[in-house]
Amino acid sequence: MSADTSGRARPEPIKAVPVRHPGRWAGVAVIAVLVAMFVHMLVTNSAFQWSFMVDEMFRPPIIEGLRGTVLLLITSMVIGIGLGIVIAIMRLSPNPVLRGVAWVYTWFFRAVPRLVLAILFGNLGILWSRLEFGLPFDRQIGALFGLHDFEARLFGFSAVDILTGFVAGMLALGLSEAAYMAEIVRAGIQSVDEGQTEAAQALGMSRAQILRRIVLPQAMRVIIPPTGNETIAMLKDTSLVAFVPVSMELFFQLKAVGSRTFQPFPMYVAATLWYLLLTSVLLVGQYYLERHYSKGFGRSTRARQRLRGLAAESGSTTSGTAQ
């Protein structure tokens, strides 16, 4: 047996032939042709009016509309995030009344399109000529006691002065965003292990302290990515307030230039370029925020933790053997 085994010839090394993927190369060729056609269209088609577009898209009214868009984005997201956190906490409350109110709010503002909300809020002046603050139902209470001229109102404003187009659009976008942020924050809070809350309660921390110091910092890892996506979606949805109308807005100003000069298509391309630029800036910020809040949860971190665990186990085993 040993002689036969030693005398047996060794097999030749296997010649590995890489798997060919003709479909991939065909797809690359199709994409290359389409890209070439698209670039050729951009360069040769006179409808783009590149010189006219570049000359118009940086004029003062456009820059003012850009500032209005950024301001509308920031204020709407501040309202949406702040109110969304409150609605999420209400949804998780043991109080059935708070849970019911939060559910109805979320149901309503997620069901109605933002364009409809923007136009609706822009026409709220039809309901009230003035917005006044004071004792609710003051006239009805006075009439109940025979005081027909009784009024307990501290101050008020004209609805036309307060509910401007910008404020109406900001409220419509912010209140709508709060419904979506409430679901995002609620999912983030529920992703934190309940043992964290129980441990904090054992240390004597209040519910507010647990939420602020324990739960929300850990939930941010889950909350940040969809919040970044919602911010980018909000940037694009700011163009909806042009139908309120809001004149201090980027798309409104670009559309006005196109209508005045009878060149609407170059201005639509300019709007596309502006939104691409703003979205790219937001994507960079989202990337760094996600990287900051994902510390300790990446693959490399988990690998290092496993290596440390193995090193600790081997160290304890060695010390036990030496003893």
From TrEMBL:
Limits of the ABC transmembrane type-1 domain: 66-286
Single GO term (MF): transmembrane transporter activity
Top-level lineage group: Bacteria
Membrane topology of this protein: Multi-pass membrane protein
Ranges that cross the membrane: 25-48, 69-92, 112-133, 154-175, 267-289
InterPro entries, per the entry: AA_ABC_transptr_permease_3TM, ArtM/GltK/GlnP/TcyL/YhdX-like, MetI-like, MetI-like_sf
UniProt-annotated location(s): Cell membrane
Keywords: Amino-acid transport, Cell membrane, Membrane, Transmembrane, Transmembrane helix, Transport
BP terms from Gene Ontology: amino acid transport
Keyword Transport: yes
Tagged with keyword tRNA-binding: no
Family per similarity comment: Belongs to the binding-protein-dependent transport system permease family.
The protein's name in its UniProt record: Amino acid ABC transporter membrane protein, PAAT family
Source taxonomy: Bacteria, Bacillati, Actinomycetota, Actinomycetes, Micromonosporales
